[in-house]
User: Fold this.
Amino acid sequence: KAGGSDKLKEIKEELYRYYDLVKASGVVEFERSISTFQNWQKQIMNSFAFDLHNGYVEGINNQTKVIKRNAFGFKRFDRFRLKVLLHHQYKNLRVRIN
Assistant:
């Protein structure tokens, strides 16, 4: 994604430059944010190195929550489950609806 190890090295150097700028600014809130960046630095660098994300799964979760919110509380869980599965276009339900 980032274009090789040279690009990752450049991104890491920019991140360290950002740390230095924040420390030089003297803003306490920004200085506290640096520790968060440092704690998550490996994950931040991985986000530049790999083109992986969980957007698809987050979309499914969001749609399921919208169905739940619009359902105003199904009395039977199996009906709610069917509604969610039908919405996400699962064809092999193996459940008989009377």
